[in-house]
Amino acid sequence: MKQQLQTMLALQDEINTLVNDNWREQNFAWYRAIWVESAELLDHYGWKWWKKQVPDMDQVKLELVDIWHFGLSLELQSGCPEEVAASMCQALKMRVCQPSDFRTDLETFTLNTLADKRFDLVGFAQLLADVNMSFDELYQRYVGKNVLNRFRQDNGYKTGTYVKNWGGREDNEHLAEISRQLDTSSPDYSDQVYRALEARYREITLR
Questions:
Q1: Which end of the chain is more exposed for a tag (fewer CB within 10 A), N or C?
Q2: 95 in a domain, yes or no?
Q3: Which residues are within 8 A (CB) of 24 and not within 5 positions of it... i.e. 6 or more apart?
Q4: What mean pLDDT do residues 102-110 have?
Q5: What InterPro entries does UniProt report for this protein, alphabetically (predicted)?
Q6: What is the pLDDT of residues 18-43, one digit of tens each?
């Protein structure tokens, strides 16, 4: 877990730096991003008692990964990836979460985030338990989405020239397909994902 945390923190540091060289000094409102994403997450899970709703679990997990991006950014405000990974690992190992009521746990997590303007790591671990999402799955999904975000930035996302749809399919779909074909335990997993995305993107867009 510690190695996976260190890898994810390093990747988050890289993508934040790609967007803004001095991101740590900017004091971005990461907690606010978590709050907004939490509302979107609840919509995907369902909360309306006056209509039939079935949780869209794939979208729920995608939103949790987006929240994890912002949570890692908050954690990185306190130190380098190696130091932060050690403290996060210790906090997670001290708390074993059992599945509970997802909506209530999400509200508690969001309230804690807004109150402290910090990442409620234990509360997030509870949300993972509620939707039966392992840490390994979080790692796989996070690395894939992080690499896709970096790929988008490298190919004109910030300037508005990047096109998300390749050959009639959104880039997220290509990412999911590519990720299933690779070994997530490989030390260069993130590099493999990037190279595979780049090769497919070039192949489709240059036809």
A1: C
A2: yes
A3: 76, 77
A4: 96
A5: dUTPase/dCTP_pyrophosphatase (IPR014871)
A6: 888 899 988 899 999 999 999 999 99
Location of structure tokens 């190992």: 93
Q: H/E element holding 11?
A: helix 2-19
| Total domains present in the chain | 2
Q: What is the pTM of this model?
A: 0.84
**90-95 own/partner pairs: CB under 8 Å, 24+ apart:** 91/121, 91/122, 92/1, 92/121, 92/122, 92/125, 92/135, 93/1, 95/122, 95/125
Alpha carbon 119 to chain centroid distance? 13
Other Cβ atoms within 10 Å of 77 Cβ, number: 14
Same domain, 114 and 156: no
Question: What would you report as the CA-atom Rg of the chain, rounded to the nearest whole angstrom?
Answer: 17
Could you tell me if residue 97 is inside a domain? yes
